[in-house]
Amino acid sequence: MLSAFAPLREKIHAIFKFKEGGKLSAQTKPQVGIVMGSDSDLEVMKAASDILQEFGVAFEMTVASAHRSPQRAANWATTARERGIKVIIAGAGHAAHLAGAMAAHTSLPIIGVPIDSSCLQGLDALLATVQMPPGIPVATMAIGKPGARNAGILAVQILALADDDLAARFEAFKQDMAVKVEQKAKKLEESL
Ligand code: RP5
Asked: What pLDDT shows up at residue 27?
């Protein structure tokens, strides 16, 4: 059933199409920093960069490990604000201290993504990321790809506080999800 929602969907697609030029150019200053513990985390963390790209939000992405390269991780976090970064997304697996290490070295907001790369399927990383001591918060997402996608979405919401255009696109994104649910409900109900 497209009728009632068709105009809205067209409007939403027009908004997103407008931003599809949003393939990030080298000149665009990154607003979001994505860091992961290993290149083996990229498959999961790509869900964060994909959604940022959809919204036309510029990001930078790198590997740094809280345990294997603590100095690199500290330097990257310490200099993030002067690079123009406003939000950091940190993903790591196993005893995942990367997001917490980021939070220790910068006052920027940190979003943590527990990666399901260990025998414990990310439960270890979830606890290590979420159980921060009072005073040093990490906004911890769900384990794995859904968490990485939500990390990107939360970063968009944070940036949208000071960007009306981004806020409008985020509203359209939410409306688009609601329209899709309506369509699924209709399809399911009609199949009964
Ligand atoms: C963690 O160890 C990383 O975040 C990754 O999830 C996991 C495995 O790393 P590799 O051994 O694949 O480099 O620090």
From this structure: 52
Relative to the CA of 37, which ligand 1 atom is closest?
A: 4
Listed as ranges, residues in the chain with pLDDT below 70 are 1-27
Amino acid at 13: H
- Helix (H/G/I), strand (E/B), else coil: 191: helix
Distance CA 89, CA 102 (A): 9
Q: Which amino acid is at 37?
A: G
> Atom 2, ligand 1: which residue's CA is nearest?
93
Pocket test for ligand 1, best of 34, 36, 40, 61 (most atoms within 8 A of CB): 40
Quick one: pLDDT at residue 3? Answer: 40
Structural Rg of the chain based on CA atoms: 18
CB-ligand 1 contact for 92 (6 Å cutoff): yes
Helix, strand, coil shares, percent, the chain, to 5: 55, 15, 30
Domains and CATH numbers, the chain: 2-161 (3.40.50.1970)
* Token pair listed for 161: 């506080």
Residues 6+ apart with CB under 8 A from 85: 30, 31, 32, 33, 60, 108
Burial zone of 102 (CB within 10 Å; 0-12 exposed, 13-18 middle, 19+ buried): buried
Q: What is the dihedral of CA 103, 49, 55, 173, to 10 degrees?
A: -90
